[in-house]
Specification:
Layout (H helix, E strand, L loop, with lengths): L5 E3 L9 H5 L5 E4 L2 E4 L9 H5 L5 E3 L12 E6 L12 H11 L3 E3 L2 H21 L6 E2 L4 H10 L13 H5 L2 H10 L6 E7 L21 E4 H17 L17 H5 L4 H4 L6 E5 L1 H12 L8 E5 L15 H15 L7 H9 L9 H9 L7 H14 L12 H9 L9 H6 L2 H10 L1
Parallel strand pairs: 5-6, 5-8, 7-11, 8-9, 10-11
Antiparallel strand pairs: 1-4, 2-3
């Protein structure tokens, strides 16, 4: 079963139904003026966190920073972290993370470049092999991958079967660190600093995430208040290129650009591309792809969050300020490629970039979770909808009238929760007809 990505705080919930209407998989209801969440249907998009006016929803990874880091604590740094500190170079932020308490930090710049090369090569070869249908869909956003698996499984073959940058590090990282630091693997713990609640419980949810080797995820908003003090200390110190703390491995701005909508395709040599951000907009374009409206497009970058990962629910600063910071980093660092093509091509030919998770696994997993709709259930739902003749007001605690009707037919909701049925004086009659048959 999928892991739990978000939790509700009943003491703060007012039953306003904002989260109910925002959830793309209809995983939330309001019962007795409190939100009720079905974790089995949750894809970790964080829209409920974003829209809740009372702060009653939080990510399961937002428990604050660890009080005692492991003997060998390794930070896998999302490049979105760099965008949270205007005027600060990424190398200084990596030094600050070391002073914070992490023994080793991993920047994803080279892995982003590797992924972009792999996409280009896959597209080039796909023109000949026809291995995947056009348009190809980016595998980067785990929310988009899960959404497609849950609601549009016939589009799973469109998701390009490549490992994401963080997954390219793979399980080998423990072996590498063991050789560097001469320490046993069990003593090495990996922490992923992320803006995304979908990274929660990576061991349970490996749907194109491939982050099962991560021991713990930390929200950027959790670590930011304390990390900023270390960042300021690093900024004040004199430049010392020979310091053991010095990091010169952030070679360009590809990784920061990566987090901005359109940033993934901006760093690639592919012409027929499209970038869409925001959950509602992404759903609209997924449905257009399903209708076959983009047959000549080669690659589509979809991000569930507005402005891309810069708008993740677990970020610490305004997404437009973060976008401005990324643009400054591009001017300072540039986007020039650093890794030799011939060596990347060798890795590609060895299959090092290919995903270990087949789309069919996702389809099978979510198919077992989706509520089954028999012909009998569908008939009873349509009959009840004809009685309601509603406007999807969500006053019943369900996101729309159809979902409410399905809940009633399955015995999960009371017909009297619908004020239109009460006004018509037929709620009790519906109860007899729809539930008892």
């Amino acid at each position: 079963m999928p892991g739990e990505h978000i939790v509700f705080e009943p003491a703060y919930c007012t039953g306003c139904t904002q989260c109910v209407k925002a959830c793309p998989t209809r995983a939330i209801r309001v019962r007795r003026r409190k939100a009720v969440h079905s974790k089995d249907l949750c894809i970790g998009c964080g829209e409920c966190i974003r829209v809740c006016p009372e702060g009653a929803v939080r990510s399961t990874i937002s428990h604050g920073i660890p009080q005692d880091l492991a003997e060998m604590a390794v930070a896998i740094v999302s490049p979105i972290l760099y965008a949270q500190f205007p005027g600060v170079m990424p190398s200084d932020i990596l030094v600050a993370l070391k002073r914070f308490g992490f023994h080793h930090v991993v920047d994803l710049t080279n892995y982003v470049e590797m992924f972009q090369f792999a996409v280009e090569e896959f597209i080039h070869q796909n023109k000949t092999t026809g291995q995947a249908p056009w348009p190809l869909i980016s595998p980067i956003c785990p929310v988009i991958a899960r959404l497609i698996a849950f609601k549009y499984p016939n589009l799973l073959p469109h998701i390009i079967p490549l490992k994401r940058p963080a997954a390219l590090i793979g399980g080998e990282i423990r072996s590498q660190l063991q050789n560097i630091y001469h320490i046993e693997k069990p003593l090495i713990e990996l922490y992923h600093i992320t803006p995304c609640p979908s990274k929660a419980l990576a061991h349970d949810v490996r749907l194109l995430d491939e982050l099962g080797y991560i021991d713990r995820a930390i929200g950027i908003n959790d670590i930011y208040p304390e990390l900023i003090r270390y960042v300021e200390d690093v900024r004040k110190q004199d430049l010392d290129l020979f310091s053991p703390e010095h990091y010169g491995n952030v070679t360009n701005a590809r990784a920061p650009l990566w987090g901005m909508s359109g940033g993934e395709i901006a760093g690639m040599h592919v012409d027929k591309t499209l970038a869409v951000s925001g959950l509602r907009e992404s759903i609209a374009y997924i449905e257009k792809i399903e209708m076959g409206l983009f047959p000549n497009m080669e690659y589509i970058e979809l991000r569930a969050c507005p402005e891309g990962c810069l708008g993740g629910p677990l970020t610490a600063v305004d997404r437009y300020l973060a976008k401005s910071t990324v643009q400054q980093l591009i001017r300072s660092l540039g986007l020039k490629r650093r890794l030799p093509r011939e060596k990347l091509l060798k890795l590609y030919d060895q299959g090092r970039f290919m995903s270990d998770t087949h789309p069919s696994v996702m389809a099978e997993r979510y198919d077992s979770l989706r509520p089954k709709m028999t012909i009998e259930i569908m008939k009873r739902v349509e009959h009840l909808l004809s009685r309601i003749q509603g406007t999807d007001c969500a006053a019943c605690g369900a996101p729309d009238c159809r979902t409410f009707a399905e809940d009633v037919v399955r015995g999960q909701a009371d017909p009297r929760d619908c004020f239109r049925l009460r006004e018509k004086g037929i709620a009790s009659e519906v109860d007899k007809i729809e539930i008892s048959g």
